[in-house]
């Protein structure tokens, strides 16, 4: 019983007088003071003192001497997850997790740090902890941005709790979410030739800053386009190069020790597949794709797949080819200068006609029989070095591009014709990339590069022997690509 606003001694004397008259002896325990309100809770200021190292009242009010059933020792409510919740999806690999703050029933105005945990759901019981962190409490809600990038198309669980020094409150409920990042390739940035630049090569190097990639797309290729007009209606060359790579060009036979591997960088470059016109102005642009790219025309023969992602084109830039521009090699393995027949051990045959120099009806084709394919290209020269072997023809860089199983862009196959036992046999012995006419091969390479085509697997050309050459659209693994075209057959004397 509490007495309103009366002094303790006055209350006690009155009570004692009454009890004496009644002859009753009681043992009474009374409060030391009579007040009309209960003690107030510690204030935020008091709590701040505790956070700084003091405040025994706060510690008593907030910290349990023993852990509760859930293991918590801080007298706060669990935070309430706000997002993502209920099997939600996030479109980023570093999502922001948000909770309504934990509340303390015995103090007011206290800011508790909040601790977050993220688990990858591995199936079965439990999961794997993949990220955690502690952040300061926000106003009403607290958010934490995941620091360790998650894996796309994967399920996760998360939770949070309030902490104070070496104590912690109860965990929130576990919430689920799944990563679903939209795959995207941003536009690259053209570097060189820069806007309005004058180039000194008929096949200048085109270089871009690689585009930003969102999601896991596997191998990404950069498609380069060169046109005579700003609308890209008259495209003269389309090239592709694996992103972050540059084909290494051999400068001479002395440079063949240079690795032919591709150097991976933040930039990607390519050269036009055909010589540009001296004194002319051209426009160029680029974009990234994880799909296939054809050479010409721009919109034809593109293989559409559900998983294919193609980014936006870069801003177009124009450049001018100097009137004094010189030729530059576009082959990825050798230059034209080194492949010319300047050495004593090479032979070059020039052809001004498109007639076959071998009767194809008498040839046994060990790969696809292309004798009936349309002859659309004319061989202008064949150079047999020690090595390389070059087959220059009028459709180089103009046939549509396909991709091998390894993602390499190719436009055709070179053929060799050998007369064995009085009979002609023909087989492909390599692939050529867009615009490529030379391969680093010699006499001893045919046996291993005819792809198991006997009897050429045991044949090596000898000096003075007559050998035929031809180019075709891809035919090594059967007729491939949208075209069925070939060049004429030219016969040369092996040096």
Description:
This protein is mainly beta and 495 residues long. It folds into 4 domains: 8-62, no CATH class; 80-179, Immunoglobulins (Immunoglobulin-like), CATH 2.60.40; 186-326, Sandwich (Immunoglobulin-like), CATH 2.60.40.380; 338-493. It is built from 5 helices and 32 strands. Strands 2, 4, 5, 7, 8 and 9 form a 6-stranded mixed β-sheet that branches. Strands 12-19-18-15-16 form a 5-stranded mixed β-sheet, with no helix packed on it. Strands 21-28-27-30-32 form a 5-stranded mixed β-sheet, with no helix packed on it. It is elongated.
What radius of gyration results from the CA coordinates? 40 Å
Strand content: 25-35%
Beta strand count: 32
- Helix fraction? under 10%
Q: Could you report the average pLDDT, rounded to the nearest whole number?
A: 77
Largest sheet: 6 strands, mixed
Rounded to the nearest angstrom, the distance between the terminal CA atoms is: 123 Å
So how many helices? 5
Shape: elongated
- The oligomerization state is single chain
Low-confidence stretches: 1-8, 24-54, 246-264, 294-306, 328-352
* Overall tally of structural domains: 4
Structural class: mainly beta
């Amino acid at each position: 019983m509490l007495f309103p606003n009366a002094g303790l001694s006055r209350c006690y004397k009155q009570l004692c007088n009454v009890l004496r008259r009644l002859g009753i002896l009681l043992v009474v325990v009374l409060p030391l003071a009579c007040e009309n309100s209960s003690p107030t809770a510690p204030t935020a200021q008091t709590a701040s003192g505790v956070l700084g190292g003091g405040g025994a009242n706060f510690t008593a009010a907030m910290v349990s001497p023993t852990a509760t059933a859930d293991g918590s020792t801080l007298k706060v409510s669990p935070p309430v997850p706000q997002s993502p919740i209920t099997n939600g999806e996030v479109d980023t690999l570093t999502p922001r997790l948000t909770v309504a703050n934990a509340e303390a029933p015995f103090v007011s105005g206290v800011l508790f740090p909040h601790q977050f945990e993220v688990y990858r759901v591995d199936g079965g019981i439990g999961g794997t902890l993949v990220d955690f962190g502690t952040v300061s409490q926000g106003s009403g809600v607290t958010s934490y941005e995941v620091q360790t990038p998650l894996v796309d198309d994967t399920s996760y669980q998360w939770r949070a709790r309030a902490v104070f020094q070496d104590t912690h409150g109860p965990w929130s409920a576990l919430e689920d979410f799944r990563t679903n990042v939209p795959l995207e390739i941003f536009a690259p940035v053209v570097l060189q030739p820069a806007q309005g630049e004058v180039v000194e090569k008929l096949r200048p190097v085109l270089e871009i800053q690689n585009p930003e990639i969102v999601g896991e797309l596997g191998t990404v290729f950069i498609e380069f386009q060169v046109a005579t007009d700003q609308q890209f209606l008259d495209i003269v060359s389309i090239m592709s190069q694996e992103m972050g790579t540059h084909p290494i060009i051999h400068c001479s036979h002395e440079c063949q020790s240079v690795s032919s591997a591709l150097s991976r960088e933040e930039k990607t470059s390519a050269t036009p597949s055909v010589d540009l016109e001296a004194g002319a102005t051209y426009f160029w642009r680029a974009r990234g794709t994880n799909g296939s790219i054809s050479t010409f025309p721009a919109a034809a023969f593109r293989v559409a797949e559900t998983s294919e992602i193609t980014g936006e084109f870069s801003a177009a830039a124009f450049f001018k080819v100097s009137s004094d521009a010189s030729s530059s090699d576009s082959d990825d393995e050798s230059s034209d200068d080194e492949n010319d027949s300047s050495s004593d051990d090479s032979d070059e045959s020039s052809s001004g006609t498109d007639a076959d120099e071998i009767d194809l009806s008498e040839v046994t084709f060990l790969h696809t029989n292309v004798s009936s394919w349309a002859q659309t290209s004319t061989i202008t020269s064949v150079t047999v070095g020690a090595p390389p072997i070059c087959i220059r023809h009028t459709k180089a860089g103009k046939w549509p591009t396909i991709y091998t199983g390894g993602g390499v862009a190719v436009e055709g196959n070179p053929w060799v014709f050998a007369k064995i036992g009085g009979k002609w046999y023909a087989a492909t012995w390599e692939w050529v990339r867009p615009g490529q006419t030379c391969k680093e091969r010699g006499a001893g390479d045919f046996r291993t590069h005819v792809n198991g085509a006997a009897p050429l697997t045991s044949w090596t050309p000898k000096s003075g022997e007559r050998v035929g050459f031809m180019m075709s659209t891809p035919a090594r693994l059967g007729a491939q690509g949208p075209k069925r075209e070939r060049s004429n057959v030219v016969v040369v004397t092996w040096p």
